[in-house]
Structures are given as structure tokens and as C-alpha cells.
Amino acid sequence: MNGTQLDSTKSKIIIYLSATPNISPNINLKATWNIFDNDYLKKLNRIDDLEILWIHSPMRKNLEYFHSDRINWVADKGDVLKNLFFEYETSYGNFIIVKPNGQYFYYLGEFGKQHVLRYTRKFLK
């Protein structure tokens, strides 16, 4: 994935940004979605030693609105995640938690950091 080596011993959190809704290219703002809050990643890493992956639909435009200046968004080339987990398009996206043994949990539809934190705690402990 983009030349990045993943650690097979660590659980993964995959934040998946869907193609909808379209964001106007004239907007000079950044999303206020709370998964971009600074405290979010610190709280996640207190739960477990995790790898967080930020994946977007290849059809997603205007990544600068989603803090691409500090988030390393990677395109889901070939729609692999979409085809495996997300048959139906949802607004803004979904997330997946994957344990090293391959067990996974996924959440469909719009979410905030509180959802990711709550379900990560439940699923990994």
C-alpha cells in the first residue's frame, strides 16, 4: 500500500472516506469533523499500539478539505475496501478495526471520534 510496510502484529484502524458528498471546490475551509482533533490519535494509542490508515475512495475530490496537509490519505485503488466491505455508498465514510488475527469490526455511515474510540475499546479488549 503506497510502499508502506504494515506491521502484522498491530491492530489497524482504517478510516475510509467515501466519494459522497461532493465538496464545492470553492470552499477554503477545512472539515470540522472531530476525527481530525489532535487528542483523537493520542486516545486511540492509549487503547492499544495501533496503525491508523486513512483511505479514500478514488472518486473523492477536494482532499484538502479533509486536512490533506497533515493526513496521509491513500486512494483505495481498484475499490478493494469498498467492494469487500461497503457495497452501498454512505455519506463521508466508514471505519474498520482489524485485529492481527484477521478478525474485524466495521461501522457503516457517518461517525465521529467517539464512535471509533468506543468500538475500538470494546473490540480490542
Notes on the protein architecture:
The chain is α/β, with parallel strands linked by helices. It has a single domain, classed as Glutaredoxin, CATH 3.40.30. Helix content is 22%, strand content 21%. The protein is built from 3 helices and 5 strands, in the order βαββαββα. It has helices spanning 38-47, 80-85, 113-124, and strands at residues 11-17, 50-56, 74-75, 93-98, 104-107. It has a 5-stranded mixed beta sheet, with helices on one face. The mean pLDDT is 89.
Helix/strand-derived category reads alpha/beta
Specify the biggest β-sheet.
Answer: 5 strands, mixed
Mean pLDDT: 89
Tell me the count of domains.
1
Our Rg estimate from Cα atoms comes to 14 Å
What best-fitting shape do the alpha-carbon axes yield?
globular
- Output the strand order for the largest sheet: 3-2-1-4-5
List its traits:
5-stranded mixed sheet; globular; alpha/beta; 125 residues; Glutaredoxin
TL;DR?
Helix content is 22%, strand content 21%. The chain has helices at 38-47, 80-85, 113-124; strands spanning 11-17, 50-56, 74-75, 93-98, 104-107. The protein is globular, with a radius of gyration of 14 Å.
